[in-house]
């Protein structure tokens, strides 16, 4: 045809080339359209758009305390998007958004020819909001030289289909829910919560401009890392809004004068509020989801399906508990290190350090490569920049693996669990001093000897067996089977004095606790412990009276709830229900409270009175004298052998809290009892928490609550002297009075006459 036209050869060849290029372009476009470069989602698939959504963990009052996600995304509705946020986006990213059908033809032609003819990947300017949405949802693939063109054509096809399915408001909503922001954050709601700790609907004009400005380059304009650069970009957005009449110039200038103020909240598993608690929730929810199916018969995914997990945690109490723990542990750590000085076991005990080294992943990897111990140790002495935990703030130093282990061995750790006794609902959960560096959860994973916090169980069993509160026992030491002779830690007790049960428990006399156990019967005490919810192994030996059994905080806390909850122990629980993203209930969970009391109401009142005496005049008096607490509090301190573990149980009418403090390595204890006793190591965490709660009216229902007075019958049972001296002749000729003889199972030969007479002990 061209040959019949009277045109010059140059024009003919130009037309041939042009038509060939158009044909090639059409073929190229067709190859993309029909999926030769990768399948393009159909209209039907686009109607069912679903994106991975973060599962949210909420506190008891609906506060967001954490999320589980691959991409941090929280979808919201169009109604939750403030108008100035929408206007900021349109003014900055797509001023003709409401005029085009997803493709801005003028801009697209410019980009298309620049990309093909000039190979200019930075041509830009053609991405409408709808095109960006297509990219946000489906991403881009690497197709080599023409990759940018292929991706843009695919996005154009998808954008056109999206515009045919969704109206402009729906497209804006989809865009804001999928657009990536800094710090692995997807969607405007997640970004708003992360950078400003507020919902999208609450964003101010300046805050909205910061987030929209971030879209140009999420890393470069990250306000956390580059605040000044982010502020300048924010100002560009504000001036764009003024340029396109979304703002008056005066308002734009006023907004520009404001400082950039962040309230950054990181919801990563390692940081933020209650990280140990959130990790436990993650484990439990994952197991629960394995038993549930969606309407398509598939299992739910905690990282993808945007579930909502409701918990019992009180976010205000949790925050105060973490503060109380950190404040006390910082002081205690200093005492701990100073007490040892240069003779610290983490420095001098080679076995402790070497065992720690052998347990590391680094050691195991080198060992698997065939290196011997000496070669491995040589490798592990090589230094490199390492971030190290410190209460003054983490620091990076050039240290070896061995140096790092020695550094961490010195640190004490802590655990705290606070529950509502009536239901077992967990209100605060502190699993350690810092989840980033110490992943081991001392609430759910750790079992440690509980020391004297086991004594109330012994005394409870004794009262249930018929022992009277005014039964008297001598503080004198007795030797039992295998030559074991328990002694009292204070050493101030008169061995020739008899003490009633209240005084013996409140001052934590070891010698009397064992005598009470032996008279009650070890089997009866273990049975009582079982009824109070203790499931762990309990050795049937006399030393169990002093807490040589190893329990975790959940068990011990559950047992103590019975003293408030009419004798019925409550099992600590923390997940109340799980919903899908639309609020549909998937699973719900009820409190687990024992159906029958573990002991009588009389015993409960007596024991609570005993433990109030512990606070008012016994081993926990520093709650009153040092911390000035006037709340109604009962409690029990605990210290294990060689000061390895410190415990405190705090009981109020509506809260039971158990705290533990110690070193992760059992071989490292406190240097002395003055530092390591539960009253010094563990009690202050509870005390500081109560101080903080007393200052906030939010907690008045807990802090102002009062114990009910004991009944007249119980008051009469408790009416006796706290101690009385042994009869001289009984002591002289029999070595004990009637009460003591009843508890002297396994006792050695009676003391020699003259040694007894002058108060000297017969080592016998």
UniProtKB/TrEMBL annotation:
Using the record's annotation, list all stretches that form the Penicillin-binding protein transpeptidase domain.
416-654
Q: Which InterPro entries match?
A: Beta-lactam/transpept-like (IPR012338), Glyco_trans_51 (IPR001264), Glycosyltr_51/Transpeptidase (IPR050396), Lysozyme-like_dom_sf (IPR023346), PBP_transglycosylase (IPR036950), PCN-bd_Tpept (IPR001460)
Reaction(s) catalysed by this chain, per the record, are: Preferential cleavage: (Ac)2-L-Lys-D-Ala-|-D-Ala. Also transpeptidation of peptidyl-alanyl moieties that are N-acyl substituents of D-alanine; [GlcNAc-(1->4)-Mur2Ac(oyl-L-Ala-gamma-D-Glu-L-Lys-D-Ala-D-Ala)](n)-di-trans,octa-cis-undecaprenyl diphosphate + beta-D-GlcNAc-(1->4)-Mur2Ac(oyl-L-Ala-gamma-D-Glu-L-Lys-D-Ala-D-Ala)-di-trans,octa-cis-undecaprenyl diphosphate = [GlcNAc-(1->4)-Mur2Ac(oyl-L-Ala-gamma-D-Glu-L-Lys-D-Ala-D-Ala)](n+1)-di-trans,octa-cis-undecaprenyl diphosphate + di-trans,octa-cis-undecaprenyl diphosphate + H(+)
Keywords carried by this UniProt record: Carboxypeptidase, Cell membrane, Cell shape, Cell wall biogenesis/degradation, Glycosyltransferase, Hydrolase, Membrane, Multifunctional enzyme, Peptidoglycan synthesis, Protease, Transferase
Hey, which pathway is this one from? Cell wall biogenesis; peptidoglycan biosynthesis
What Pfam families does the annotation carry? Transgly (PF00912), Transpeptidase (PF00905)
| Occurrences of domain Glycosyl transferase family (ranges) | 62-241
* Cell membrane keyword on record: yes
Family, according to the entry, reads as follows:
In the C-terminal section; belongs to the transpeptidase family.
> What is the recorded name of this protein?
Transglycosylase domain-containing protein
Its lineage reads: Bacteria, Pseudomonadati, Bacteroidota, Flavobacteriia, Flavobacteriales
